[in-house]
Write a structure and sequence with these properties.
The complex is a heterodimer of chains A (about 675) and B (about 375). In chain A, about 5% of the residues lie in helices and about 45% in strands. Chain A has three helices and 51 strands. In chain A, the strands form 13 sheets. In chain A, strands 1-3-8-5-6 form a five-stranded mixed beta sheet, with no helix packed on it. In chain A, strands 2-9-4-7 form a four-stranded antiparallel beta sheet, with helices on one face. A four-stranded antiparallel beta sheet of chain A has the order 10-37-36-35, with no helix packed on it. In chain B, strand 1 and strand 2 form a beta hairpin. Chain B starts with a helix and ends in a 6-residue tail after the last helix. With about 375 residues, chain B is an alpha+beta fold. A six-stranded antiparallel beta sheet of chain B has the order 3-4-5-6-7-8, with helices on one face. In chain B, strands 1-2 form a two-stranded antiparallel ribbon. Chain B is globular. The longest helix of chain B has 14 residues. At the A-B interface, loops of A face strand 9, helix 3 and strand 11 of B.
Amino acid sequence: MIARFTLVVTTLCVTLAANAQNDCATAIPITVGTYVVDTVDGAQIPLPVCATGGNTATNGEWYTYTPSEDRSLTVTTDLPENLDLDTRFHVYTGTCGNLVCYDGDDDAGSGYLSYALFNVLAGVTYTIAFDDRWDADGFTFQLIEGEPFLEAVTFTTQSLSTQGSVRAIVDMDSDGLDDVVSVTTSNININYQLAGGGFNTVNLPNDTVANSPSWSLCAGDLDGNGRMDLLYGGGSGVTLMFANENSTAFSDSSYAQYVFCQRTNMVDINNDGHLDAFLCHDVAPNVYLMNDGEGQFIWNQGGLGDTQGGGNYGSIWTDFDNDGDQDMFIAKCRGGNPVVSTNQLHRNNGDGTFTEVAALFNLADPMQTWSSAWGDFDNDGDMDALVGASSFAAGGHKLMRNDGTTFTDITAGSGWDEFLGTSIEHITHDFNNDGWLDVMSGSGTIMINQGGMVFEANPVGFDVGAVGDLNDDGALDLMNSSTARINNGNSNNWLRIRTVGTVSNPNGIGARIILTTASGQQIRDVRSGDGFRYMSTITAHFGLGTDEEVLQVEVRWPSGIVNVLTDVDINTTMTIVEEISTDVRESILSEVLVYPVPANDVIQVTGSGVTQAPVRVFNAAGGLVLQGTLSGERLDVSTLSSGFYLLEVGTAAGAVRRSFTKH
Amino acid sequence: MTQRLTILLFSALALTGCRKDTLEEEPQAPIDPGTPSGTGVRFEPAQVPYPVLSTYRFFTGGLKDQTPNSGVLPYEPITALFSDYAHKFRFVWMPAGAKASYAGDHDVLDFPESSVLIKTFYYDNVLPDQDRRIIETRLLFKRSGSWYFADYVWNEDQTEAYLDMNGSITPVTFVDDGGTQRTVQYRIPSAAECQTCHKIQFDPIPIGPKPQNLNSNYSYADGVKNQLEKWVEMGYLQPGYPSNIMTTVKWDDATQPLDLRVRSYLDMNCAHCHADQRHCNYRPMRFAFNESDDLVNLGVCVEPDDPVAPQYTQIVARGNPNRSMMHYRLSETDETVRMPLLGRTVVHEEGLELVREWIESLPGTCP
């Protein structure tokens, strides 16, 4: 009815001053109605680009729209008279000298026609600009007003200066703020998030490495030097990139062996306190690199998903059986071979061995999937799974509820049965901070968790990228290529938790966090590597809804240590350091002795758990002068000049400091 | 024990050329092919793959000249797979008395036990000296009813090739047939990469030697002849196969209809994955020559499962290559976007142009 009315208006309006809309300054104010553009020939190219398709337009046509009250607005060229045409438009707020993308579209209409529906606020001027990215032919467009609609989550586009493939949002410098990492084979580009907002862009060139993270990247502090290292999963092999002690350079270590990498993860597979790396292999048994704690990452192939022919696409590590260790699910895919494409669940036996139990838990599905999202979707204390279809050729998306002894397929009626987008990426986060984990999937859609295992499609118009908080506002943002998608947020409360392991691995990967508010409990597993390609923040993120207080945060570390915190602020990022209980700590720490005093070329350190322990030596001015690990219980200090020094020994109970004097 | 002895003997030969000549000049009693001594092809099923290529005696004279030994027959598919502009020599060998049989126009010939398919990849006009560089020789051989891969990587002197199933990358800079200088990071496949394309379910298979690809003339040393007829003449193919074989065309033969050229190109370059039972059968395309007369199987007006970049609204958008995922993937070198997935690191510009021309020729627009 509204549309019909509009069409009548159409015939009345039409030709406005023919050349007035050629640039932003002469944009024509319009309201609801239908308008005809003769040719896209205005001299000003609409920039920034707020739709897909790149920035190769050469001309534009400009309009403005200023609603008198809050409304929704539809801008569309999806009209019968535009059959066979190919249009694109951008919607801006701001002034001509400083246009800010608000919305825009390329192809949401039928064929190559454009359509966008968005909310607008009274009194704000929106600039609408069409371009000739695809063709300059004239066309007709309509503006339609409606009631404002509820949007669970919306994003604003920003562009960021990146270089190469944008692969990660992760806190590279341990300042609690997520940074953006993009790479080429000879450069690592880091956009360090600044405390007051914005980024400091740093490029760290490296010798050209054998592999690029074309298929996936993951991050973690592999060598325990306090800095984030990277893993590049390439099409024919794997490269590790180690950050130096002040993150000013990366050194590489590439493996000669062939791996057709897919998802990669960092996780402490044998729970020895050192992060290992896991690599899905597309066409052969999976590979894992075991960290010996002394800088060696030992190649292993076999024992963690050995299907002949591979088919391993999306590994994700999570504690599905709540026994305190990390299990692994593999989303699998392979044409014409249901043996290879059957998903696997590798249960950690707790002793460094794993048993494949997918069939036992009703997860041995031969569907074609490249990734699954694991989270406690119903907040009942265990990890459920959304196994996302990359193709419907062998079945659709599967929402699998963890019932302890089995997983129950509850797809029917969940919203996932009616969602027809397919994707290689499925990730779960609480994008609207309401305390329920959402799932981002294909067709530019976030499936918003309504509670009760019901999901509702919330189109956002872009696909999965790396996820993190790019402006420290507690609302999760994304990076697609060099485009930052900044979550517009809402009034819900939140808490981000950064885990620092001491006995466990340095990032606390594999830790289970249990957060309690008046509404109940939520859980997260600290992870490196989810979805298919990207690395999303390691910092755990909780939406709190309208709860104003966190009653308790419990961290169950991979080491078995449990820390419970009750005095917790909200709407902030807190760092939790793995703490061994004080009485145990004191008894261990008091044993540590350093001799001889004064020392000559070698000092001897004794005490429980100091063998091969990491050490740092500081001079009297507090400067770091030596770093390494004990050789047995000995440390070579021959390079130090005479004087007074402080030795820090990293033990299982934490750091111990002892002074010594060098002759 | 036998194998070890063989290697030692071979090394001795390689080190002393005159000794080899002496051996060859000795009078030879007729010996069945496939035995360690003699001059015919050597193929002992229990001993292969040999550590070096020369042991098979597929070639006479210098190994790099690729002059086929008796019983080693060159062949060429009508349309070849694009492999980073590499040239290829292809040969087939079968033991005396063994024959392949016809299994269907579009099916690989049913090869007998101990058949060997030999494919040598090389470049001409390789810089700096503008000479030929042979990179690798790949074998597919049949033993106990199953096919096996063996890849031999050539040495710098081009005198020998060594069994290597680990895969590697070697840069090659050359001037192509059109006079353009190109550099490729040539990928020598590992066993797992061979298997990725050459398989059905878990089983390795050949791809090229199908009647649809061989039913064409070839210039043999003794004159031009239809390849299938030549195979019959050699005793390598059971006679009596159908006379009306549905045959592909040469992808770059401008005298042939555009759609047949494209379908032939897509068959050879894409159908080993995009067909039933194959690596990527879960995507909707079906590129085999006998299935691609249906435009839907070619992806015309079919939306991609994986958007990759959202402006590519269909796999093939009628009349609009810039909106076609097929065109985009063929134009990309990013290993997560490019197609084919393996065997190509640079764009096949002429093949891409063919596909562009075909897409533009499709009338109308997709709904």
